[in-house]
């Protein structure tokens, strides 16, 4: 792990497993509370160094880090596909997005602007002029999940470096190696010591010190709702960015092109084994299309090849652990016991779980209300858009949604009424580029990530006023 610019090994280590066969892929040091305090101490100096770094240096470092990742892209992809769930094809796509995230961060570093303030809006203030600058907030604590182990870390380090902050990253315990490799890229790019630490260990053991320490000015968390709520309670008076989960809905109306819709929805449901915060979980299809949609959906799902992550022909690898696959199996079995119909899938082999399609699920069932975070999708027949919107909104999540229709009026109706942070028209909920404001409402989070928007969260305005 990297603490304040120094690479540290420890006697006590944590094994990192390849979930496919449970072999040990690597080991990382198990950080102690003292290590965390040491990282915070280093970051206190790092924050001063980062804030002094001229913009041209920040963007040069970010571009060099992007070049490094690009040059070693196959190593990064192999790492993601070894410690995580993704196939090598999905892993390569993540590496390419990481390069993009770092390049956008370099570009956005040039555009951290304030604006002038018209003080003369107040009678008696005609002789005042001024503006505000954007200043870095200091030290950012970043806590990241297992499912995008590289790019979601880049979404925290890139904007932090661009905006002149120090940052301490606590990557997911199951997939820390990708984050360590990203730290290597910043080290090679010449990021000054103490600006970045990547510290490995159990979130519940070392997380509290990081979250609650008064020197930390912002906690940027990506992960599950439950963990997010615990962190928010402990953080105290700090900025919070919470990128949490969802059970994203997609609405398919009478006039949708069924071929295109099925193809986007199947990909959106099973990308990264359904372990995707914006993955498609609930699909609401109007009556006239329902039977055709179901048939085509099953046919397409059954073409999915589940198996070896490193085989380029594989569409879906294992879940992150056998424990998670067992949980998914239990949720599906519970839904079946309650009267759901299994259209395809429902089979587990170790950490592998086949792509699964259910119908006749009650909208009150756990599997419809909570985030399944596995390769399971629920198909609901609805009368019209009104019913679809009502059911889509009837959960405590709201990250992204999709709607398929050619009717612009109905699309605008959905834009107005769906309770989400993003709506994709004629695409599934599973759409994101790294430069858009990404985030959710309700239990899906607070704040927006997507480089420019993350920089807004990581900076604070300082008002300057001249009395003439
Ligand atoms: P998780 O909440 O279990 O863990 C996330 C991180 O929090 C890990 O690094 C973990 O070690 C750490 N952690 C756990 N307990 C902690 C504690 N008490 N204090 C401090 N840190 C602690 O999530 P996960 O299983 O790794 O990831 C899956 C979740 O992440 C899903 O809900 C998914 O939807 C969500 N997610 C959201 C986005 C988004 O951008 N909105 C993106 C990816 C994943």
From TrEMBL:
Catalysed reaction, written as an equation: (2S)-3-sulfolactaldehyde + NAD(+) + H2O = (2S)-3-sulfolactate + NADH + 2 H(+)
Cross-referenced InterPro entries: Ald_DH/histidinol_DH (IPR016161), Ald_DH_C (IPR016163), Ald_DH_N (IPR016162), Aldehyde_DH_dom (IPR015590), ALDH-related_metabolic_enz (IPR051020)
EC number(s) reported in the record: 1.2.1.97
Domain Aldehyde dehydrogenase: 7-464
Gene3D superfamilies to which the protein is assigned, alphabetical: Aldehyde Dehydrogenase, Chain A, domain 1, Aldehyde Dehydrogenase, Chain A, domain 2
GO molecular function, one term: lactaldehyde dehydrogenase (NAD+) activity
Keywords: Oxidoreductase
Principal EC category: oxidoreductase
Entry's family note: Belongs to the aldehyde dehydrogenase family.
Job of this protein: Part of the sulfo-TAL (or sulfo-SFT) pathway, a D-sulfoquinovose degradation pathway that produces sulfolactate (SL). Catalyzes the oxidation of 3-sulfolactaldehyde (SLA) to sulfolactate (SL).
The protein, known as: 3-sulfolactaldehyde dehydrogenase
Organism: Pseudogracilibacillus auburnensis
